[in-house]
Amino acid sequence: MEDDNEGVGTGGTTTASSSGAVTGSTTTGGGGGHKHSNLSEEIQLERPLLKAPVEQLNKLFRNTQKSLEKEMTVLVNTINDMNKRKDTITKDEVSTTIDKLLNKMNNLKRKIEETKNEEEGHLKRMKARLDHLKDANTNQQNPHQRDHFNSVRVDRVLIDYLLREGYYNTAIKLASTGKITELSDIDLFVSSKKVIDGLTKHDCTEALAWCNDNKSKLKKINSTLEFNLRIQEFVEMVRQNKLGAAISYSRQHLSPNASTNMKEIQRAMATLAFRKDTSCERYKYLFDEMRWTDLINQFKVDNYNINSLTLKSLLTITFKSGLSVLKTESCGCTESRNINCPVCDKDFKKLAKPLPISLQSHSSLICRISGEVMDEHNPPLVLPNGQLYCKNALDAMAEANEGVVTCPKTGKSFDYSQLRKAFIS
Amino acid sequence: MSNNDNNNNGRIDFEQLEENLGRMIKKQKSTLTKTLKDIDSIVGTLSSSKKQLELFAATTASQLQDDEKASDSSKTEQPKSTFVPIVVGKLYQSLSESKQCQKVQSEHKELHSNISKTGKLVDKNFRSDIEKSTKGIEFDPKTVNKIILYHFYREGKFDVADLFADEIGVKQSESEYLKARFTDHHDIIKSMEIKKDLQPAINWCKQNRQELHNLEFKLQRLQFIHLLSCGKTTEALGHAKSTFSEFANTKMRDIQTLMGAFIYANRLKDSPYAYIFAPQALKDHWSDIKDAFARESYRIMGVPQESPLAITVNVGVSSLPTFIKLSTFSVLQKANDDSNSLTVEINVDQKYKFHSIFACPVSREQCTKDNPPVLLICGHLISLSSMNKLVKGSGKLKCPYCPTEQHFKEVLTTKKTNTTLYIFVNKLKAKKKGGHHGHVWVSTVLDYSTLI
């Protein structure tokens, strides 16, 4: 290539053809051509926000129904039994039985009162969440409302991450400063903290209670958590050399799973013949500390699952797609670094490393003077030396310097009339 | 969880959801209140049975005593109590036979249909597949935490940030350093927002005067507007006297306009100055000045204008629907996973495009140093390779976007007549193509690196 300084007649009299015919069809994104992305599509992703309270409500309902059924059956059976023996039964026996029943009923009542409050909490949360989404959906054309929704969403995504990672204090503080406690599942995560803390201390009690609390849901998703907890408790007994206790434990708690998990049970039972410092790989892993971490992870997955939460944090999900879209070839290069570009930051760049770069089949030129995007309102102008900047920046420069523009890249000066408009379509 | 393709074609039926939720709230209240009442009534029945029992027992005992007194002969067995069977029988009647207990259960169970309907409605209106495109990705938690901590400090959420620094075990010196970076910035903004005090911002401007253009005057101007709009005419005059003279050279017109407002000092809202002093206009001034200050302050600090974390999350959410759609085509998904570039373009808000991209409008290929963009005489930019394909054997080339046709002879003519003004046309000696004779004539070849 040589610089021949050839002149060409004035261009620019022709109209730039609209890009519509060529573009648009190449994108799968909602029809293309939207200036703003469609917020309704984004709101449709908010299922966990609304579903989590429903799931918790459902759990409370089931448990109330279960205890109602249980207590009522006991009540009816006891009374039926007394009625059968009514001619022989003593007054004292009737009296103590009635006392027992009264006690049960009062306990049941207390429990249902608590549940009622808890349920109302979930319903209130649900209402707040539905209102929040509806508001955003209705006012999506209003930029202020939209910015507000977006910034609340960032906080929500962060709270979700913080809770999952166990940074409860930060999460609670962030929710309360943003006044979005009702939009965050703090209670859900704080109550699962007990289970995680227990498992961290090698104690299955809380976890088993949780399994019992969520029995029907866990069954629905074919969870093996309870079985694995039982195996772990059994192995712990073997580790402490309480072999007798281990055997009776296995009779009580492992045998119900015999039809489905015989292999695992047999393997666990075989530990009775080994010691905790066994070198046999097949049994060593049962004694491994990692098993506790696995249990914690399994608990988390099941907990997310039955509450309709995503398995990965919302931050992971959005970062993955966001970074893939933002990442370009030029990110982080010293020459083209843009301070405002997230992926130009070294920490973000590290996260984006395994991700693909975005595909760009549409031009988008960002002026190196003003940082503005060049489009039909601010078209690119080409300097005689082949450098290209936006009209706004060059106009401002020409105005301040009596019609002369200086190329910041090469330092050469040109008269404004030498600039030529370019169309990038 | 079903892959719900039946999600109302992208529309969310909020009315239905709201109506349903309203119904459920009512139902929950009535059901639980009823259940509690039923239990109360069971408790009542039990208690009254117990009372009867005691009462009967007492009367029977006193009768017995009376009987004993009446006749000593009664050394026989205690008479069988008649009241126990009566009480038990009554209890049986009112709780067992009446099926009251079953009723409690079945009534509570009715709530279930509402809950499950709500769940189904949510499933119908929202998508359950948001994780579909997120398989097998795990980010380094340390880096993520660092990014979050920075975000909190940057956004001025210092309380949250301090707590987080503590929870993730960041050294205090480190967090203090981050905090110190943003403290002044947020203090200034807070004074503006809460106290309507512009002085800290003005002081900051004075310190950074050589790097700023208009901000200081904008602040002084708003200070004046603020004083005048509060009716503090004397203070406003004093402020104008002490500060505006400095800007006399460059802002004379603005100053004149502002001083003119004194004429209407008592009725600014209905004066020709309403565009400055109307309540909404005042509100806009404050939010504009806050934005302007934040922009300049971030620029001088050398930090991004918008939180990178917030950008990434928001771009992430808005691109997610496309990613999900994409992941339903397993071929595309696989190609995406394999190549180092996405296989499908995803629309991004213009303001989130940070790097120049030139994609040839003809071939759709991203230009590179080897295939740079060229400027045709009509001003259209296309890639060099597309350009070469368009040149006919005769040397003629028609712009693909407008009727302009250029012949290399024409180009030559223009070149001769206009040598000084335009230096856009380069001659490419390389790239000999079959059928082409000699050279390919093109307009300016832009160095790709000059674009980015």
From TrEMBL, chain A:
Residues 13-26 have a biased composition (Low complexity). The keyword Zinc-finger applies. InterPro entries: CRA_dom, CTLH/CRA, CTLH_C, Fyv10_fam, LisH, ZF_RING_GID, Znf-RING_euk, Znf_RING/FYVE/PHD. A zinc finger (RING-Gid-type) spans 341-410. One of its GO terms (molecular function) is ubiquitin protein ligase activity. The keyword Zinc-finger applies. Residues 65-136 form a coiled coil. Residues 341-410 form the RING-Gid-type domain. Residues 1-37 are annotated as: Disordered. GO terms for biological process: proteasome-mediated ubiquitin-dependent protein catabolic process. Residues 189-245 form the CTLH domain. It is found in: Cytoplasm. Gene3D superfamilies: Zinc/RING finger domain, C3HC4 (zinc finger). It comes from the Eukaryota. GO terms for cellular component: cytoplasm; GID complex; nucleus. Keywords: Coiled coil, Cytoplasm, Metal-binding, Zinc, Zinc-finger. This is Lissencephaly type-1-like motif-containing protein. The gene is maea.
From TrEMBL, chain B:
GO terms for molecular function: ubiquitin protein ligase activity; zinc ion binding. GO terms for biological process: proteasome-mediated ubiquitin-dependent protein catabolic process. Keywords: Cytoplasm, Metal-binding, Zinc, Zinc-finger. InterPro entries: CRA_dom (IPR013144), CTLH/CRA (IPR024964), CTLH_C (IPR006595), Fyv10_fam (IPR045098), LisH (IPR006594), Rmd5_dRing (IPR037683), ZF_RING_GID (IPR044063), Znf_RING/FYVE/PHD (IPR013083). The keyword Zinc applies. Its main location: cytoplasm. It is found in: Cytoplasm. The keyword Ion transport does not apply. A zinc finger (RING-Gid-type) spans 360-402. CDD domains: dRING_Rmd5p-like (cd16652). Residues 360-402 form the RING-Gid-type domain. It holds the Pfam family CTLH. GO terms for cellular component: cytoplasm; GID complex; nucleus. Residues 197-235 form the CTLH domain. This is Uncharacterized protein.
